[in-house]
Amino acid sequence: MPNKLRWGVVATGGIADVVTGDLRLLPDVEVLAVSSRALPKAEAFAAKHEIPRAYGDYKDLLADPDVDVVYVATPHVQHHEVTRAALEAGKHVLCEKPATLTLPHLQDVVDLARERGLFFMEAIWSRFNPLTVKLREVVAEGAIGEIRSVRADFGFTLEHDPAHRLWNRALGGGSLFDLGIYPVSFAHMLLGEPETVAAHGSLVDGVDAEVGMLLGYPGGETALLASSLVSPLLSRAAVYGTRGLVELPGMHHAPTAILVNGVEHRAEIEGAGYVPQLREVVARVKAGEVESPSISHAESLAILRTMTKVADQVGLGYD
């Protein structure tokens, strides 16, 4: 394996632009190639980020023998197709969340990655934020006692436009899979997979405009979560224990500060915030590992099981 891992970026949208910028901050990474369905877009993206190779089809990028790792940033509905093709081509994969929209598709790529001995991870970047790491540490140390309840939401108002990917069912739209995955992942990180799931929401054009979720656990613990495209939710989180609480006062998926029993903790955020996640991928690939303990294959499957139950209850279910 070369000293520098050579990455290929599939798609050129907003998230690909930001993550590629952070990729270029890592000294042991070379962003070698990018693809888009429109070659001029790939060429413009390549020029912006000083990427030497641009392709008009992701299959051409996957056929490039010099690409070691593929970052999949396509619309949700294409994640399974592109991830499977990348693994079949012998590439390691970091795929934007949700890694797939259905459990059979996620199990398929997990099984394939393990069979081929290739790294695969769902890009839930919030897990690697230094303050999220700090949160896990203080909880493990018993700073707030036993966790009894978690509250988290993420939402904003987005003008209804059937062509926009978040309002377009054909592109895997809706608040749950794009925004709600953060609160659900947050609850899973702290309490594990729930025993019961209750959800209610509203649909527009076949996708969820908003969802409220109540997750229940065997010991009586609860998680109250929400996502929305029609209300400006505070996007905060709180973890309540028997001896105190941790508050994430703003944008809990990308915190810049947390309060542990009223005491503020801050940390330096590298780049746009994706650097720790990308560094983790590089380290695990170089170590020959197929997954990260911070967001393991089993946990991605558990999160998607919860989200599938929510989707089915609000009438969103994807085939």
Give the overall average pLDDT.
97
What is the strand content? 25-35%
CATH class identity of the largest domain: Alpha Beta
Q: Number of helical segments?
A: 9
Looking at the structure, the CATH topology of the largest domain is Dihydrodipicolinate Reductase, domain 2
- Main-sheet strand order equals 8-9-10-7-11-12-13-14
Sketch the major β-sheet.
8 strands, mixed
Rg, rounded, reads 19 Å
Low-pLDDT stretches: none
Give the tally of β-strands: 14
Distance between the termini: 39 Å
Shape label:
globular
As a percent range, the share of helical residues equals: 25-40%
Global structural class: alpha/beta
Question: What is the CATH-assigned architecture of the largest domain?
Answer: 2-Layer Sandwich
**H-E order:** EHEHEHEHEHEHEHEEEEEEEHH
**Overall number of domains:** 2
CATH superfamily of the largest domain: Dihydrodipicolinate Reductase, domain 2
Protein name: Putative dehydrogenase
GO molecular function: nucleotide binding; oxidoreductase activity
Organism: Saccharothrix ecbatanensis
Keywords: Oxidoreductase
